[in-house]
Amino acid sequence: MDINFQHVNFKYDKKQKINTLNDINLTISKENEFITILGHTGSGKSTLVQLMNALILPTSGSLTIFNQEIKQKRNQPLKEIRKRIGLVFQFPEYQLFEETVLKDIMFGPVNFGLNMEQAKQQALDTAKLIGISDDLLERAPFNLSGGQKRKVAIAGILASNPDILIFDEPTVGLDPKGKKELLSLLDKIHKETHKTIIIITHDMNIVANYSNRSIVLKEGNIVFDGKPIDLFNNKTMLQSMNLDLPYISRVAENLKAAGKINYKSVPLTLDELYDCITGDLNE
């Protein structure tokens, strides 16, 4: 597998009595996975994805990324890993530092070896793809709205064409239209290029509508790793992890309780709910 954790532990300070992450065993492919990472604040989600592109290093255990073993030392070549695994932080301000939006989007391609002309064209193509208008390209990124900053931060990562794309709460700060457009774009990238996409989210509707694998963290431990449908069909597990059902599933549960429909596996999407309703009506 392209990312492989074996018994990985992590703590930010050696004086910490409790690890931030405990005994992580995880494999992720660079292709055909759309993964959602779930868990409450402080569960270790952001720490986990920062390990995935070697932004931080494991305290103990074995972490291998694209056949390179990541050691517990600072002086090791990591540039190629960070090119191939793009990480967009929860707060876009952490990734914006150039004078203009265009220069910010160009930074990654230039840093990873493209000349200025190639990097500019790559940046322009990516800006167009993600819906950044031409009039914003010469503006200072810090003068943009929160949603615009997030789009620029995402464009800066996409422009380097990584193999795996990781997003920490990418829809925060976006209005409903912007959220739908971004998720549709990520879904399109995933389906057309087969790139693996990993999203940290608290939105169960994203889990239900887009992901094919969910990983749940609780107090630094992986407590679930599997298909979203298996997670949402296990009420005991959901309650123990304080997770909600997606909106459509809550509607389905209310209809089932009222005796209007019946099902063995809870519907996750509008299409599944429709099939459930029409199936009952046709019987």
* Amino-to-carboxy terminus distance: 45 Å
Decide which structural class fits the backbone: alpha/beta
Order of strands in the sheet with the most strands?
6-7-8-3-9-10
Strand coverage percent: 15-25%
Q: Number of DSSP helices?
A: 11
- H/E element sequence: EEEHEEHEHHHEHEHEEHHHH
Low-confidence sequence ranges: none
Q: Please outline the major beta sheet.
A: 6 strands, mixed
Overall mean confidence score, pLDDT: 90
Q: Percent of residues in helical segments? A: 25-40%
Shape: globular
Cα-atom Rg, whole angstroms?
20 Å
Instruction: Let me know the number of strands.
Output: 10
Write the layout of secondary structure elements.
Blueprint: E1 3-10, E2 21-28, E3 34-38, H1 45-52, E4 60-65, E5 68-70, H2 79-84, E6 85-88, H3 101-111, H4 116-130, H5 146-158, E7 164-168, H6 176-193, E8 196-200, H7 204-210, E9 213-218, E10 221-226, H8 228-232, H9 235-240, H10 247-257, H11 270-282
Parallel strand pairs: 3-8, 3-9, 6-7, 7-8
Antiparallel strand pairs: 1-2, 1-4, 4-5, 9-10
Helix pairs in contact: 3-4, 3-5, 4-5
Structure, described:
There is one protein chain. The protein is α/β, with parallel strands linked by helices and 283 residues long. Helix content is 40%, strand content 20%. It contains eleven helices and ten strands. The protein has helices at residues 45-52, 79-84, 101-111, 116-130, 146-158, 176-193, 204-210, 228-232, 235-240, 247-257, 270-282; strands spanning 3-10, 21-28, 34-38, 60-65, 68-70, 85-88, 164-168, 196-200, 213-218, 221-226. The strands form two sheets. It has a six-stranded mixed β-sheet, sandwiched between helices. A four-stranded antiparallel β-sheet has the order 2-1-4-5, with helices on one face. A hairpin with a 2-residue loop joins strand 9 (213-218) and strand 10 (221-226). Helix 4 packs across helix 5. The longest helix has 18 residues, at 176-193. The termini are far apart. The model has no long low-confidence stretch (mean pLDDT 90).
